[in-house]
Each structure stands twice: as structure tokens, then as C-alpha cells.
Amino acid sequence: MAQDTFSKEETLAMRRRLIGHSCRLFYSDDPVKIIRARGQYLYDEHGKRYLDCISNVQHVGHCHPSITEVAAAQMDLLNINTRFLHDNMVQYADRLAASLPDKLCIFYFVNSGSEANDLALRLAQQYTQHQDVIVLDHAYHGHLMSLIDISPYKFRKLSGQKEWVHVAPLPDTYRGLYREDHPNPGDAYADTVKDLIDEVHSKGRKISAFFAESLPSVGGQIIMPQGYSTKVAEYVHSAGGVFVADEVQTGFGRVGTHFWAFQLQGEGFCPDIVTMGKPMGNGHPLACVATTVEIAGAFTANGVEYFNTFGGNPVSCAIGLAVLDVIEKEDLRRNATKVGAHLKQLLTQLQTRHDIIGHSKNGKSTIRMKENISKNRLKEQDRICVSTDGPWENVVKFKPPMCFSIQDADLVVRCIDRIITGMCLHPHSDKACSSQVYSR
Ligand SMILES: Cc1ncc(COP(=O)(O)O)c(C=O)c1O
Does residue 27 contact residue 379 with C-beta atoms inside 8 Å? Predict the structure, then answer.
């Protein structure tokens, strides 16, 4: 198969002509053309290697041979309408059930995180017979119209906030309302949700769901304070609503110590609906909603069939199973925990030398502009791809394939150190120095 039919300039020109311009490229000024990949490395059309700190989707590594082998074999044998009975779907659901608390035991397979979240909304509204949704500030839950409506990150730039959507403060103990010096930020932030519920009730409206990522990513990779989710779930349940955990970015062991990021909130907490996607199929479009018998029962009771042409087909589920096998066989959660801790330690050391890291005082546009410069420098000078996130685009995010190594972490931090040092010495780049750097 021809991998590189056109020169980079030709591909770019064709893309500009043929593809909607709202579909943006990384490094839009000088995009990278990648023609093959392996593990945590990407290769451009000249064979130059890039270290990939962006691809959380290629969870167990780009083009992992075990995954491609299983995918090709199942493709060769059978791929068929999901209304025919097949082992792969039930085997996969059974494996997912084993990774989740007992009450999350009913599964719906879909093709993208957006589809999963849209279905979660339907499930919540059908079960509760309420309409209103509470979301966290800056959240993004997907590109469907229903999800733009519950994504402040998007609706603020578009049609605005619908009357059935309510925005709670981001439980951010670094920059938010209650910070690390607060005696109990978990309870304090949960109480903001309680206040919002009271406000909703005072308008004669009712809550169907509290919808949140387990580690809000667009919000700046927020690590929620302990106790927050348990308390919010109590408030939401007593208002007759359900708790939806969006694990589209964070699931499948990406946090290392736990398989699901909501588990960071402790044994006592369990959402009513969990949505999953990105890392699930290692690049193959595969996503899912997990929920309880009661919520699924209410959805069935409306008498309307749920049919999804591609969701849960034999090839997708074979791939999903293979991803779970690789996570276990290669002990990738342990690797993520080890390399994540190492990276965090290096970055903390870096912080002691550059007090600019972790500083939150600077103006928004300045931070964004300067961050883009350092992101581009990492790409151009060191061939390292990282992303930035957060309301001010000043949080450097590391979300590589889980095979990312100690050596990779050492290299990235060495390069960031050199770039920040250079930027701080440079008279026109002094405001560059105001990023939060997280290792998850
Ligand atoms: C937290 C979260 N939820 C949902 C989605 C939507 O997933 P998809 O792009 O697969 O539709 C995304 C995508 O970026 C996401 O980050």
C-alpha cells in the first residue's frame, strides 16, 4: 500500500481544498506528516522519528502487533451486524464488568466517546424522567449537538447555555475557588453543586444527571479533591439524579494505580453510568456505556429498540479484548505508575529551578502565546510532540501510549528544561514562564 503518495506540501494543499477548515491540525503553521508509527514513536515522510506524548488513543502503543494480528484475523473470519449472536461482544462485556464495581454490569457498545455520552444522557433522562444536567465549568463531552449543549468549553463560543444546563465550578484546588490551603476542599466544592441543585429546584426544574470527567482534561487536567465525588453523588441522588463519569480520556488504566480514574476518589464512590472511548480500541473506533440494571431497565421499558450498526461488532470487540490482554501481559499500568512517578519527580525538581512552573499570576493571552512557542520548539528542535490544555492553554499535558519509558521521560524533561531556560534568558520571552506541568 502506498503510504506516502503526495509530498507534504501537496497533502496540505489538498487538505486545505477538500477538508473542512474547522477540522484543525496539530502545529497548524507547520504540520507534521506522519506515515508510520510503532510504540511511542512516530515517523514522518523522511523517516524522522518523533516522540509521541499526545496519543492517549494508541493506548498500548502504536500498531501493536498483537492488536493488528487479532484485528486482521477477525476481519478475515467474520464481521457482521450486531443483531446476530456472537461470542466476542459478551466476552468483552464480561471482561469490562470484571474491571468495574459490581453494580456497573450492563453495557452498550458504540463507536465514539460522543456517542457514548449522548447515550448516557438519554439513559439518565429516561431513568430519572428529569431533564436538567449539571456539568463542570470548561468541560468538553463531545461533538454531537446534545453534547455541545453540556460542554461549556464549546457552548460559550456558540449558541450559549441552555436553560436545562447548569454549570458548577471546577473543583480545582490550584486555581479555583477553594485551594490547597482550604481545610476541606472536597466538601466545599461539593457544596457548590448542592447550591446549584437548590437553585434548579427553586425554578421548578429537576436534575437528571451530574456529568463530569473523572479528571477534567480541557479544564486543565484537574485532580479532584478527595471526598468530592462521593458527596456530589449523595446530593445528586437525593435530588433524584444520577452521576455520570466520563472516562473517555481517563479509563483503561491511564492513571496507573487504578483501572478507572473515578476510583481515585476511593472505594466508597461508584458512578451510576460510566462512559468510555479513546484508549479502548487502541485507535480502532470503539466506545461503550456501562450502567446499572435499574437504569438499563428503565431504558428498555420505553419499548424502543436501541440499535447501533457498528457498535460492538465482532472485530471491534476482538480488538477491545486484545487491548485488555496487552495491558495485563505487559503490565502497562505498573509501567504508567512507575514512569508517571519518575516524570512527576523530575518536573518537581525542575520547578525548584524554574519558579515559573506552577505559577498562576500571568495574563491569559500571554501564557497561551508563549506556551505555543514552547510546544512548537519541542516539536522543531527535539521532535517531541506534547499538547497543552486548560482554560488558558498553559497546562502541558503528557498523555503518551502507556509503553512510554523512563528514558523517554528523562529526554522530555531535559528538553523542557533547556527550552524554559532559553526562553527565560531571552528578553522577549520572559512571560513564557508560567505553566503548570502535570505528569498525568
Ligand atoms: C472527555 C471527553 N469526552 C468525550 C469526548 C468525545 O469523544 P469522541 O471524539 O470519540 O467523540 C472527548 C474527545 O475529545 C473527550 O475528551
Answer: yes
